[in-house]
Automatic annotation (TrEMBL), chains A, B:
Short name of one Pfam family: Raco_middle
InterPro entries documented for this protein: 2Fe-2S_ferredoxin-like_sf, 2Fe-2S_ferredoxin-type, Beta-grasp_dom_sf, Corrinoid_activation_enz, Raco-like_middle, Raco-like_middle_sf, RACo_C, RACo_linker
Organism: Rhodosalinus sediminis
Domain of life per record: Bacteria
GO molecular-function terms, A-Z: iron-sulfur cluster binding
Domain 2Fe-2S ferredoxin-type: 5-109
Protein name, entry field: DUF4445 domain-containing protein
Length: 680, 680
């Protein structure tokens, strides 16, 4: 008796013997190999393409004869003629195993393929979205067995795809009958199974094989901007990313001013809800248009946002979030209909998943950052800071994760800064000041040249230099400190004290002229004493929040700092540390996670297990409430100095020695000093 | 050691010993006695009122001392002062068992109280609605345990009401926080649990104890009329019943003309859907107004309707129901949001339950009739006929139930009749013709006198006699037959043949003058040969359907006939049998079930087990499709004669001997005969 043929699948290495004549797709299923199929083996979807290898493979102990797989059959030939199979590829559902063989499953044929994230960590997302396509053959109606079309669709899903039970939205009922008849009783259905306990739900139906794809929208709903990533639910590929300003800004720049608006104006919360929902709907339409995709193919959405935006998105008045005990209306994740969030432009049955909030001040955005950065897997004690109008701060490692938020205010985003502006072409984003000459050079967004390089003016263009953005002001303040133009208390020295004519009087205080185009009728861009104070308040709040978590953890140093947020990506670690925004660590231990909240949203969109994981993790995270913790105020005051009044910064000292200067000679400087003492 | 006190509950007879000091409510729960409570034993809802009995009860072997229960406490005294307790009543949650006692639980204190139906069968509905009220005490928010308000509501329901898990519509989230704070962390919630497998759902929340009640709407959506019953979900009481014409009539009188309208007019189905949904919404508002109830307190709806109305209600084009194989889009019951059916006037989170359809031609209305009449419990073989524009027919007993529908057309409702009109004041509803004098007397709706009684004209009023309604035309045709004015073939004799001057020429045929007010300028109401033909077609279809079920069952007689439908309630059994509408049975075996479809809807509204039962039963019912069954045509032709060409009617013969007459002498009569032959 000859043995059954041996099949070895790569890259999994799974192997086993199957009876001669077994289709490769069946062999894969039997051996637990991840091989995709939408059409269920009918030779039309081509998702099960494999690349057989022939020859001797000593690694696997297999010699594959040229006839190890059955010859091309009519189905493969037809598919190849119509759509073209790549050389060397076979359809797994058609090719049959006839002898020992090695079969490679290319990434695009894997259901749970890995999607590499654009991130420093290079972690991959395993594809396991909640919504999947299935081709079904549905029994024709029979007068003697008068089951409805929906019941026969359900029977087909049970028999052909092992989905034993489904629910169906009433709005889809109207589409069932025409689709089934048009497709000759063959149809593709989109089935949504958010988690193992939920009854799968029919989201959409198409006649025959649907080849138009299926998409999801990951939305990072921030106080200032709304960013969305249109993602292919099959490949995980981001088809388009787009952002708009949050139109709620007209009701208040920061979160607390929006809470106030809701408190002061009857119907104010509802007004803000309608405004932001409309904006998201518009963004969804725009991004689908940008990617050239029918918005009706967007069947899933994921939202991450801070608690106030979370409540306003859900239509809940955020008033309780404006005062202790900062009670959330709901803290758990939500799985609901996207139309209930006012999304009318996408598929009418699209689903929405909202990540859980961690606490009344630490929202689903922080949860998304956690999901992206996974501090619970860190061997080193890691501080993750998501810098925005509010800073979300996580501290932890494999043993424990703590979280808080801190009200930094919008200074880091260029607001409350005399020459501040949003990050846009013309904004100064980088600053260097020569410690000898005290002369600055700057770089602006949209231009790679420094201002002291030839051709800068031409490269910047007619708009010229227009202002300072968030990362620009951080660098400017840090450079002032490093150049000895500003002292530890944050006081800018006078021209006499510093020897620089760029230090000019500005009322009772001094300012530093960063860029002067007034001769050409352009702006004179200065860093004012007020700017310094605003940055000091913001960075003190950030540092104090981090210190509070460190206290709670019982440490006075961390091993690693991760800067998250779109803004975090642009902060220079060295300047951030000179400013004392973050605790002292070796500079190479400060990394940027990019838009971690957006990445977290995308992970939740593409992987159901990730949803379950973050739902579990947020319960385990230790919540620290900055607003009621007396030590927060202490830490805040001590952090006012640049870099810090008390904490040593030895790592920083090694890479950026800071001159010892003091400009407090009464007048404006004394005012600053008095203010600090009052706070203590 | 003395024994624990013995408690005997009546009417259940449940008994047992409980430790002295046990509250009566706890004792009831421990002994499995059905005693209601909304407030969970806080002495405020008074749902747990009991009537203790003192003295010697030999039947129970108990002697209850006057101090068998604890004395009134402050809570009871406060309740009595505020709302008044009936004499002899105690609050079960406050009164404690101190000695042996007999305690009566009055019907209004039982959760599963029986509601007597207004029906000949006197069957009761056991109260077990899907939505119930629960008073909860919710933990206040705690900054150190930042669970959302919803999560603390869920925890309260789990701890205080043993409801381990809930879901919550996003629209209710906005109401949670204000309600909890207004009620001082005490709130009443409405929880919807449609069946044991479903996760309970929060439908509504009120601060403190909600005493405004909770209501459901049972809707019988017919082709011609829409009837609704507003029902108290606590007591089962019908607070108001109301009906309106189905506004879809303007698209077609009967179902097939509406299907045609959908086929011929793009968007026609959607137009009919919008029309009927709007009408139901208007009806809901009107009925709530009539009962003086806030429409927002209507949290559940149940719909019964034929398959075409079912599809139009759901927004599904009924085109497939117009042709074989009559495929339903969905046949199973539906549990959905009422807003998805366009109900905007009631609670925004109200639920809708649509009964299952039996087959493509036998709808949820027939299922409701079955639920009401329960043919599966009948010891006698029972034929249930729901007469409307379409007749739904059920035949069965404990062994098996069969169902079909038959297209009777609207003749039974007075349409297609020369002097036909809807049942309204002035319509002839009863007819008697003297077999000797051949003179008629009639009774009209809105007047109890016969037309030959003194004062008839005054009693009818100035409107006079206006036409003939459905039951009137049935009686008229049957009386013509009994009086020998019409022969077995349905031919009206001439004046010469019958000797009655009321037989007049009407074109080529004869007509019988039933009422002549032409001298006073009123109408001359005649039964025409065309009317007879219309009734013959309708009754033949009905009888043929019944016979088909009897064939399938292998019988040629039934034991009992139940006439259902609003119209069924007004048909005289004797006349129906003379006409041969229904098979021959003893007259006392013909009963009316009233509006059985509406009753079935109300049962499904009030009892969850009934929903499960009908869902199971419809699968077991044997469906017979009249449209494709060749014998239907045979039966139809044979049933054209009055009462029948072939089947003997011995029971009828005993109570109503029919004269042997034949008027077919050529002319109009022959035309009728030819038409019948052509159909054969």
């Amino acid at each position: 008796m000859t043995q059954d043929p041996l099949v070895v699948f790569t890259p999994s290495g799974k192997r086993g013997r199957v009876p001669a004549g077994t289709p490769v797709l069946d062999a894969a299923r039997r051996l637990g190999v991840d091989l995709d199929s939408v059409c269920g083996g009918r030779g039309i979807c081509s998702k099960c393409q494999v690349a057989p290898a022939y020859g001797t493979f000593s690694k696997h102990g297999v010699t594959a004869a040229p006839d190890a797989l059955s010859e091309w059959n009519a189905v493969e030939a037809r598919y190849d003629a119509k759509r073209g199979l790549k050389p060397g590829r076979r359809l797994g559902c058609q090719a049959r195993v006839m002898g020992d063989v090695v079969i490679d499953v290319p990434p695009e044929s894997q259901v749970h393929r890995q999607v590499v994230r654009k991130s420093a960590t290079l972690r991959a997302i395993e594809m396991d979205p909640a919504t999947r396509l299935h081709l079904i053959e549905v029994a024709e109606p029979d007068m003697h067995e008068p089951a409805g079309d929906l019941q026969r669709v359900a029977a087909a899903l049970a028999a052909q795809w092992d989905i034993p039970e489904i629910t169906c939205d009433v709005s889809l009922l109207a589409k069932l009958q025409p689709a089934l008849r048009k497709g000759g009783w063959q149809a593709t259905v989109a089935v949504h199974s958010p988690h193992s306990g939920a009854t799968p739900r029919l989201l959409e139906i198409w006649p025959g094989l649907h080849e138009g794809g299926l998409y999801g929208l990951a939305v990072d709903l921030g106080s200032t901007t709304v960013a969305a990533h249109l993602t292919d639910l099959d490949t995980g590929e981001v088809k388009a990313s787009s952002g708009i300003m949050n139109p709620q800004i007209r009701f208040g720049e920061d979160l607390m001013s929006r809470v106030s608006y809701a408190m002061m104006n009857p119907g104010g919360a509802a007004e803000m809800t309608a405004t932001v929902r409309e904006a998201i709907d518009t963004l969804a339409t725009a991004i689908a248009g940008e990617a050239g995709i029918d918005p009706a193919l967007i069947v899933e959405t994921v939202f991450v946002c801070n608690p106030v935006m979370h409540h306003l998105l859900l239509g809940v008045d955020p008033v309780e979030l404006g005062q202790a005990p900062f009670a959330l209306a709901t803290s758990d994740s939500l799985e609901l209909e996207a139309r209930d969030l006012g999304l009318g432009a996408i598929n009418p049955r699209a689903r929405a998943y909202v990540l859980p909030c961690i606490a009344g001040h630490v929202g689903a955005d922080a949860a998304a950052v956690a999901l992206s950065e996974e501090p619970w897997r860190a061997e080193e004690l890691t501080l993750i800071v998501d810098v925005g109008t509010n800073a979300e701060i996580l501290l932890g490692d494999t043993s424990r994760v703590l979280a808080c938020s801190s009200p930094t205010g919008p200074a880091f985003e260029g607001a409350q800064i005399a020459a501040g502006q949003r990050a846009a072409p013309g904004a100064i984003e980088a600053v260097r000041i020569d410690p000898e000459t005290k002369e600055p050079r700057v770089r602006v967004i949209g231009c790679d040249l420094w201002s002291d390089e030839p051709g800068f003016a031409e490269a910047v263009g007619p708009g010229g230099v227009t202002g300072i953005c968030g990362s620009g002001i951080i660098e400017a303040v840090a450079e002032l400190r490093m150049a000895g133009l500003m002292d530890e208390s944050g006081l800018i020295g006078s021209a006499a004290q510093t020897g620089s004519p760029r230090c000019v009087s500005d009322g009772r205080t001094q300012a530093y002229v960063l860029h002067d185009a007034s001769a050409e009728g352009g702006p004179r861009i200065m860093v004012t004493q007020g700017d310094i104070r605003a940055i000091q308040l913001a960075k003190s709040a950030l540092y104090a929040g981090a210190r509070l978590l460190m206290d709670q953890r019982g440490v006075d140093r961390v091993d690693r700092v991760v800067l998250a947020g779109a803004f975090g990506a642009h902060i220079s670690p060295r300047h951030a540390m000179v400013l004392g925004m973050i605790p002292d660590v070796p500079l190479d231990k400060v990394t940027s996670a990019g838009n971690a909240a957006g990445t977290g949203a995308r992970i939740a969109l593409l992987n159901r297990a990730a949803r379950a994981e973050i739902e579990r993790r947020v319960r385990e995270i230790v919540k620290v409430e900055t607003a009621i913790e007396p030590r927060f105020q202490e830490h805040f005051v001590a952090a006012n100095a640049i870099p810090h009044a008390v904490d040593p910064f030895p790592e920083l000292a090694a890479v950026a020695p800071l001159p010892r200067v003091a400009f407090n000679t009464g007048g404006g400087g004394a005012e600053g000093g008095r203010r600090r003492r009052r706070r203590a």
